[in-house]
Amino acid sequence: MTTTRKNILITGASSGLGRGMAREFASRGRNLALAARRTDRLEELRDELLAAHPGITVAIRALDVNEHDDVFTVFREFDEEFGGLDRVIVNAGLGKGQPLGTGYFHANAQTANTNFLGALAQSEAALELFRPRNAGHLVLISSVSAVRGMPRNLTTYAASKAAVAALGEGMRADLARTGIDVSTILPGFIRSEINEKVKNVPFIVDTETGCRALVKSIEKEPAKAYVPAWPWTPVALAMKVLPLSVVAKIV
C-alpha cells in the first residue's frame, strides 16, 4: 500500500498549479510547507487553508529557486519545523519564451535556468534530506510538451521540461533499490496564470479540475504519469511517433 505522506513541501505555491495543489492536499488533511517569491500571496493562501481546514499546519517561506543556496536553507528549515518532510513537489517554474534567434535570449535563458537548474537545486536539497532516512517522495512537475521538440514560444520551455523529465528518470534509476520514490508528472494543458492569455488551446481543463487530477496522480506515486490521463496519455504516445510537422500543429 502507498505510504501516506503527511508533510508536503510545494514550491511555486503562490499561484497556478502550486496554489491549486496546495488546496487539494489541504482538503486531504495534509500539512503544507509552501514556498514562492510572492509572500503576500502565500500569506493569503495560508490564511485561506487554515480557515477551511483548522486541523492542518501550514508554514510559508519566501523562495526564489534561482537563488540556489536559499533552496537548501529553506528546505532544511521546513524539514526541521515539520519534524521531517515526507514529500517534496518541485513545481516552481517559468513559461515565458520566444522563438530562438529573435532577440529574446535573456527570456529564454531565464526560463531554462529556472525550470532546469532550479529543479536540480530543489532535487539536490530534497534528496539530502531523504537519503539519510532512506524514505521520502520526490515529485517533479514536467510537461507533456517534454515529449517532443516544440515550435515558437514553447521551444525553450519544452526543452527545459524534457531536461526535468530526464533528471527524474535518472534519479529514479539511482534510487531504485532504496525507500525513496521519484515521480515525474507531465501535465497536459491546465488553465493557470502561466497560460491565461493563450487562446485556442486543445484539450485544456480548468485549474481546479487539473489540480485535482494532479494530486490524485501524485498520491499514487507513479514513476511517470500524464495528467489528466485522458486524453494526454494517448496523445503523448501519438506525439512520440507522429511527424514533427503534425506535432507542431497540436500546440
Helix content: 40-55%
The whole-angstrom Rg is: 17 Å
What's the mean pLDDT score? 92
Note the quaternary state here: single chain
Strand order of the largest sheet: 3-2-1-4-5-6-7
SS-based class: alpha/beta
Q: How many beta-strand elements?
A: 7
Q: Which H/E pattern describes the elements? A: EHEHEHEHEHEHEHH
Low-confidence spans? none
Q: For the terminal residues, how far apart are their CA atoms?
A: 38 Å
What's this entry about, in short?
The protein is an alpha/beta fold and 251 residues long. The protein contains eight helices and seven strands; from the N terminus they run βαβαβαβαβαβαβαα.
Q: Mind explaining what this structure looks like?
A:
- By secondary structure, the chain is of the alpha/beta class.
- It contains eight helices and seven strands; from the N terminus they run βαβαβαβαβαβαβαα.
- It has helices at 16-27, 39-52, 68-82, 105-130, 155-174, 207-220, 229-241, 244-250; strands at 7-11, 31-36, 58-62, 87-90, 136-141, 180-187, 224-227.
- The chain has a seven-stranded parallel sheet with strand order 3-2-1-4-5-6-7, sandwiched between helices.
- The N and C termini lie far apart (38 Å).
